[in-house]
Amino acid sequence: MLFSNINEEEFELYEEFIRSGTLYVEIRLKNRGHRCVDCGTFHTNVKEYRTKTIRHSIYASQSCTILYHQRRFICPKCGKTCMETNPFISDNTRISDQTIENILTDLKRYNNTFSSVAERYDMTVRGVMKVFDRYCQMERNRLPKVLCIDEIYFSRTRRKKYVLVLLNFFNRAIIDVLKDRDKHTIAVYLSKIPREERKRVEYVSVDMNDNYRDVLRSISKMP
Questions:
Q1: For 175-207, what is each residue's pLDDT tens digit?
Q2: Which of 67, 68, 64, 63 is nearest to 86 (CA)?
Q3: What whole-number distance in Å separates Cα of residue 114 and Cα of residue 104?
Q4: pLDDT of 27-48, one tens digit each?
Q5: What count of other Cβ atoms lies within 10 Å of the Cβ of residue 160?
Q6: Angle at 58 between CA 124 and CA 137, to 5 degrees
Q7: CA angle, corner 148, sides to 144 and 154, nearest 5?
Q8: d(CA 7, CA 87)
Q9: Is 119 exposed, middle or buried (0-12, 13-18, 19+ CB in 10 A)?
Q10: Calpha distance 165→151 (Å, rounded)
Q11: CA geometry: angle at 203 spanning 198 and 209, to 5°?
Q12: From CA 77, how far away is CA 40, in angstroms rounded?
């Protein structure tokens, strides 16, 4: 069984077949009825079925897609329609919760990359990055006494090929990474940091880029 959160007796239909190297699982759950969100009537009336395609590639050697025949209920009392609860995904995505959990677990390992995880789950690199960005919100470190600011070359495919790195001089820990090295980006970012924290910085190490020096001078005068 491919699903750890659903018992076998919950399925009205469960069929597996392979097409073009992909494992497909066709599923229809047993009709457990639905309570109308408007009038509270409990009923089992089905208006129609809609097939939802969900990526469920949890095996490294086999890509998998769920074909979920999801019921659309209609209340016999007030006419309100509502979709059957989807146990495979918790929000409006086309990737199963179990796949997302596996992706995030794999990305915790230091020797895994977006590319290697994407290949493992038969996804695009961009798709794995979107999962990471959606569920991993990393807070920045506090500003140190000695702050290093410098740009690094990030990607030739981006419109702005350089990102800006803020670094702790003493332990080389990354404070944060900004999307580009533009003066406006730096100014907006630093202006959002509380003045009390900015005052902790005693020295700043930058190169000869005028953008950095101009922004730092103006930020130092902000209330």
A1: 999 989 898 898 889 888 998 898 888 898 988
A2: 68
A3: 10
A4: 999 999 999 989 999 999 999 9
A5: 12
A6: 60
A7: 125
A8: 11
A9: middle
A10: 6
A11: 95
A12: 10
Query: Using an 8 Å Cβ cutoff, are 121 and 57 in contact?
Result: yes
CA atoms of 196 and 212, how far apart (whole Å):
21
Q: Residue 111 contacts by C-beta under 8 Å, 6 or more apart in sequence? A: none
- Give residue-wise pLDDT tens across range 70-84: 999 999 999 999 999
DSSP assignment of the chain equals: ---TTS-GGGEEEEEEEEETTEEEEEEEE----EE-TTT--EE--EEEEEEEEEE---BTTB-EEEEEEEEEEE-TTT--EEEPP-SS-SSS-SB-HHHHHHHHHHHTSTT--HHHHHHHTT--HHHHHHHHHHH--PPPPPP-SEEEEEEEE--SSSSS-EEEEEEETTT--EEEEES---HHHHHHHHHTS-HHHHTT--EEE--S-HHHHHHHHHHHT--
Exposed/middle/buried for 161, CB within 10 Å: 0-12, 13-18, 19+?
middle
Q: C-alpha distances in angstroms, 82 versus 78, 88, 122?
A: 12, 17, 32
Distances (CA, A) of 1 to 14, 29, 53, 58: 10, 14, 18, 12
Q: What is the β-pairing status of strands 11-19 and 162-168?
A: unpaired
